[in-house]
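Appendix B, Record 12. Input sequence as logged:
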Amino acid sequence: MLSNKSKAIGYIMLSAFGFALMTAFVRLAGDLPFTQKSLFRNLVAVTVAAIVLRREKCGFKWEKGNLPLLILRSTCGTLGIFCNYYAIDHLVLADANILNKMSPFFAILFSLFLLKDARISGSISPCSRRSAARCSSSSPASRRTPFRRSSVCSAAWAPVRRIPLSAR
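Logged structural output:
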């Protein structure tokens, strides 16, 4: 029997393979505009989310004061998806996948600088900052779109950090 650590590693690899496969299919979709590709991707995501919510018999509720932050998060997330699909269409697939996987790191940086989150400031080493700078500008072609794409995608998480845990 596999240990939990081995199962976790397997699931992470399966997830990475699935996202790489999705990226390849987005590229193979042809000359469709990136907005149309993201529309169909989001329709699939909404369908899956609705099925899960219905099966678990829980609704989708939010507090009235959190609505502007949720709208901001969804807007930034949509812009991030647009930028991701634009990168898939215009960059090498490996570069587009790397940019997609870098967005959690940029979320940490955004929460550090925009929200002044003191818990994070000690966890980012100067070595990590240098490696992120190298990764975000690894090739001449990736200097145009990638940082903006990762930044927009990461900015989607920053407003949610302000929502109290009871509302999430």
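Confidence is low (pLDDT under 50) at residues 123-168.
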